[in-house]
Amino acid sequence: MAPYESDDSTNGTTTTAAEAGEPRSGRRAAARYVVPVAVVGVAAATIGLVPALASSGDPDLPKITAAQLINKIAKSDVEQLSGTVKITTDLGLPDLGGLESGLLSGATQPGGDGSAADPSAKLTELAAGTHTLRVAADGPDRQKLSLLENAAEYSLIHDGKDVWGYDSKSNEVYHSTADDSAAKGRDGEDHVPATPKDLTDEALKSVDDTTSVTVDGTMQVAGRDAYKLLITPKQSGTTVGAITVAVDAKTGLPLKFTLTPAGGGAAVVDAGFTQVSFARPAASTFDFTPPKGAKVTEGDDLGHGRENGKPEEDLSKGADGLGGLEDHKVIGEGWNSVAVFDSGSKGGLPSESADGDLGGFLGSLGDKVSGKFGSGTVFSTRLVNALVTDDGKVYVGAVTKDALVKAADTGR
Known about the structure:
The longest helix is centred in the first third of the chain and has 10 residues, at 66-75. The two termini are 30 Å apart. A twelve-stranded mixed sheet has the order 9-10-11-12-13-3-4-5-6-7-8-14, covered by helices on one side. It has two domains: 3-302, Lipoprotein localisation LolA/LolB/LppX (outer membrane lipoprotein receptor (LolB), chain A, Clam), CATH 2.50.20.10; 321-410, no CATH class. The protein is built from seven helices and 22 strands. The protein is mainly beta. 44% of the residues are buried. It has helices at residues 24-28, 66-75, 99-105, 119-122, 196-205, 358-364, 401-410, and strands at 3-5, 14-16, 80-89, 129-138, 142-149, 152-159, 162-167, 172-177, 211-221, 224-233, 240-248, 254-261, 269-277, 295-298, 306-307, 310-311, 329-331, 338-342, 367-371, 374-380, 385-389, 393-397. A hairpin with a 2-residue loop joins strand 6 (152-159) and strand 7 (162-167). The model is unreliable at 1-56, 96-112, 180-192, 305-325 and 351-356 (pLDDT under 50). Helices cover 13% and strands 34% of the residues.
């Protein structure tokens, strides 16, 4: 069981989750998502929200240990809220004029059979730049997320069995049911990993004996008093520098999430509410009727339905169907874990396309490397790096280029 390091420096002791009265299953209970409605593919885990500006002066709150604060997060039962958030994500992706979002989501290009309102494509816009969101939730069956754009708005509404996506710019509507694979994560729970709570839940799953967890003071977010939880990898070789979570002192709900890279510079993911209310939203918030003249696309028409109770399409396969992640293996442990799967494409990067030398273009975006495994190309962001070998293997992790090569040499 992972040790949670106390912020009480007078005794220098650590507290395990079990000693804090928090079994592993209790920690996983923290994964009840506040705004559940869609998935955006492999890149979604890196999507974040910009923090609200903290008020001057830190609040004076009762002392609490890291184990107690994590337990407070796990026991948080907030199901009703509304608020405004901002999103800034700086992965350091190359500027491909918007093409990078399509590649990450596997979105259908203009003129294809896809829908501009399909959340699996639309929400990948959050993977880069700064955006403003409005969120609302009323229990497990009613949530709404609206992405505000220049003179347009995209809304994702979950109301009972129905999931609606509406893009006002194109006047297109996407519709599915809460049981469709398009509206569910691989763990079977609906979720949008785009709130501080979502991101915190994912971070806490990574906490083990390779991690230091402490309480690092207090702050205010969106006018509310909060504790600061600091999560720091003990290992070298990871691209993650530290994660800071502002936890609401009253409700235990994470209000702000910040992930800074080991390489320094601006945060890769910076997440927080600028305004939040825990009052029940008006019932009309979740009402939706397709506007007159809107094009409506059913999720089943895009292959998002189910057959025999199983998803027809595993969204973890990514843009090119690079093998389901359920078939992957893991090399290393903790923050140095590297996922390995077979792309099914021998010979490495594709060498030709209808538009010319696609392999050469993709290769120019990466760095050629070689080792005991053979040779390949490393594609880097400020957080997640991937090595595609010439024999079709793919190594992915929040680790440095050298760590990827070492993992490939070990698991060749």
